[in-house]
Design goal:
This protein is mainly β. The chain contains one helix and nine strands, in the order αβββββββββ. The longest helix has 13 residues. The N terminus is likely disordered.
Amino acid sequence: MKRTVVAAAALAALATHASADGHKTPYPEGASVYFINIEDGASVSSPVLIQFGLRGMGVGPAGTVDWDNVGHHHLLVNRAPMGEGENANEWDETLPNNDNHRHFGGGQTEVTLELPAGTHTLQMVFADYAHVPFGPDLVTDQITITVE
């Protein structure tokens, strides 16, 4: 029983809430996301293994507890870069879940995608437990790959 109380207190201490002014959850200075095994201009075969890297934060499941410095990966496929043009306000919104916005809310750190031959764009976004991007810049640059 004592362990349960201590564990619950520890989890409560880790919990956090969005800032009072409604802006994105901040993240530690120096935190970054990156592609581990693929780079801009790469030529690949399908299925494509994409591995997600993260520095300075932790990966955890979505939709559970809002912990400081913990989130999960999203992969943007074949769409405009995050936060640019008509997507400028995306930092304030929950990311959709569809073929262009892949969610990894189980804490996954890689995916194997079947992509048709041709040119494709990829961008990683790191988001909080509610699928709202940490931000406004915890993303990779958009990269272009060619599937042969």
